[in-house]
Design brief:
Layout (H helix, E strand, L loop, with lengths): L2 H23 L23 H7 L20 E4 L5 E6 L5 E8 L13 H7 L10 H10 L3 E6 L4 E8 L3 H13 L5 H19 L2 H14 L12 H5 L3 H11 L5 E7 L3 H12 L21 E5 L5 E10 L7 H13 L4 H9 L3 E10 L4 E10 L3 H14 L8 H14 L7 H13 L6 H10 L3 H9 L8 E6 L1 H4 L9 E4 L5 E5 L4
Parallel strand pairs: 2-6, 7-11, 7-12
Antiparallel strand pairs: 1-2, 3-5, 3-6, 4-5, 8-10, 8-11, 9-10, 12-13
Helix pairs in contact: 3-9, 5-10, 11-14, 11-17, 12-13
Length: 512
């Protein structure tokens, strides 16, 4: 048989198989099998799968097995000769490492009128550094299979790398160039800044973003935490290369930096590589965070999005900073009240009323202040109904619906069962550890977290909940169609109209 004929025969056989499969898929019965002699089935042996299956009680759900033992990974804390702090967790059987550089100055150090400066500066660090051009940096990241990214928050900025363990030394050298020797070429500054302006334009078109910007301004004014780290179109357009260079000089120094290493790399190699890359770095950071402004009187804050069929709503107030005495009791309270799917807020607005796809409560805590916000995207016609329901749920905590034991127990259990998910990958572990220097937490914060959550009593969680039950102390922030919303808006509060970047446009007196 020729090769061509062989291929033809195989093709016919494959076609036949395909037709048979297609017929089965379309519901056509396969050809009847030839009858086989009937053999009497032997009874199942004792202990076989059949007898075990027959003993299973399928009228009730199976009981869960025992909770597996788990503890956060051990972390070593030590310093390089010049004082740079290192948090190191040696773990994993796979040759992966997460390397992070945490700068303990964030967007709170942006000068007034120049929000977004720190984020722009950090975004430019890999656009050429040391002897490497931007293309050289890109090639090295590619060739060494290094993932790189940055993030900026109110109190800190972080440079992230994920890499193969055998590239640790090269990655440390590259990271040091980013932190110590960025080029900040004028053309790159202009290009990246303009990209940021375009991103801000897109972001400000979203009601959720407009609400977030107005919420920050409502709670914190123009000072500390009052603007989003990403800045606005207007603020970004003001930034120049000189601003970027000055901010880098003020923020990056050994006394404001910590390094986090997680993965399969030994301490000796960590100290050698980081010491070679960062050990001769000197200087002191001069950046200072803006001051925390005194809170204003609660008001209704509105960002207009004409024609919107939904409104983005938040009911929010100030909260104490990170690490305050209420931190863990409030964590437990909010888990049952606003954070989880089965929390009171979501069950009311989504499951009972059907006004939203989801409503959640969240604490955001910074070094010098914090906030608590309950937010949802709701149907425009139910905007004020949703606000009233949120206020009713808050008031109930101090009246006819106090925090209950079952809520405390389920909240603690949910928090403890979810905590291991923050340690699933080397990157996740590094992210958790990075918050220790970023927020000035104790070195034992990560390992003590489960114990401190489990120790929260019903009395403590109830006390925390009652500290947040007074709805009159909350600002209401709404991003939606003001023309449709204004006729039925609450008349008891002053109305503050905001631009989509959070800037205050004007204030309307209450319509009492």
């Amino acid at each position: 048989m020729s090769a061509r004929a062989g291929r033809l025969v195989r093709g016919v056989r494959l076609a036949a198989l395909a037709l048979g499969a297609g017929a089965a898929a379309c519901g056509e019965p396969p050809p009847a099998a030839a009858p086989q002699p009937h053999a009497s089935a032997a009874p199942p042996a004792a202990g076989s799968a059949a007898t075990v299956a027959s003993a299973v009680d399928r009228t009730r759900l199976p009981e869960p097995g025992p909770t597996p033992e788990w503890a956060p990974p051990p972390v070593e804390s030590y310093s390089l000769p010049n004082g740079i702090r290192v948090l190191h967790s040696r773990q994993g059987s796979t040759p992966l490492v997460a390397l992070a550089l945490v700068v303990t100055h964030g967007s709170a150090t942006d000068p007034r009128g120049k929000s977004g400066l720190t984020e722009l500066m950090v975004s430019l660090l890999d656009e050429g550094a040391g002897a490497r051009s931007a293309l050289d940096v890109s090639r090295e990241l590619r060739d060494r299979a290094i993932d790189y990214g940055v993030s900026v928050e109110v109190d800190h900025a972080t440079l992230w790398m994920t890499l193969l363990a055998d590239a640790f030394g090269e990655a440390a050298t590259l990271l040091a160039d980013f932190a110590r020797r960025p080029r900040f070429e004028d053309a790159d500054v202009t290009r990246v800044r303009d990209e940021g302006v375009a991103a801000a334009m897109k972001r400000e078109a979203e009601p959720t973003s407009g609400r977030s910007a107005a919420l920050r301004r409502a709670l914190f004014g123009g000072g500390y935490a009052g603007e989003l780290p990403s800045g606005s179109q207007a603020s970004l357009k003001r930034l120049r290369r000189a601003d970027v260079k000055a901010q880098h000089a003020a923020v990056f120094a050994p006394d404001s930096v910590a390094l986090v290493v997680v993965g399969r790399v030994e301490r000796a190699e960590v100290e050698r590589a980081l010491g070679a890359a960062f050990g001769d770095w000197t200087g002191k950071a001069s950046a200072a965070a803006q001051t925390v402004e005194a809170p204003g009187s609660p008001a209704l804050h509105v960002v207009d999005y004409p024609g919107g069929t939904q409104a983005s709503v938040a009911v929010a107030r100030r909260a104490p900073p990170d690490g305050s005495d209420e931190h863990f009791p409030a964590l437990v309270f909010n888990r049952a009240f606003g954070e989880s799917f089965t929390g009171r807020i979501n069950l009311n607005l989504r499951e009972d009323k059907g006004w939203t796809y989801g409503a959640r409560g969240q604490f955001r805590r910074f070094r010098a202040a914090g906030l608590y916000a309950i937010a949802a995207g709701v149907k425009t016609e139910h905007t004020w109904d949703s606000v009233r329901e949120i206020e009713k749920e808050l008031a109930g905590l101090c009246a006819d619906a106090p925090f209950r034991q079952i809520e405390r127990d389920e909240a603690v259990e949910g928090l403890l069962l979810g905590y291991p998910s923050e340690f699933e990958t080397v990157g996740a572990v590094a992210g958790t550890l990075a918050l220790v220097p970023a927020l000035g937490r104790s070195p034992t914060w990560v390992t003590d977290w489960p114990r401190r959550v489990g120790a929260v009593t019903l009395e403590q969680a109830t006390q925390a909940s009652q500290a947040y039950c007074d709805a009159s102390r909350y600002d209401v922030v709404v991003a939606g169609d003001w023309k449709a919303l204004e006729p039925t808006a609450p008349a008891s509060r002053p109305v503050v109209l905001h631009a989509r970047d959070g800037a205050v446009l004007r204030t309307l007196a209450p319509r009492r």
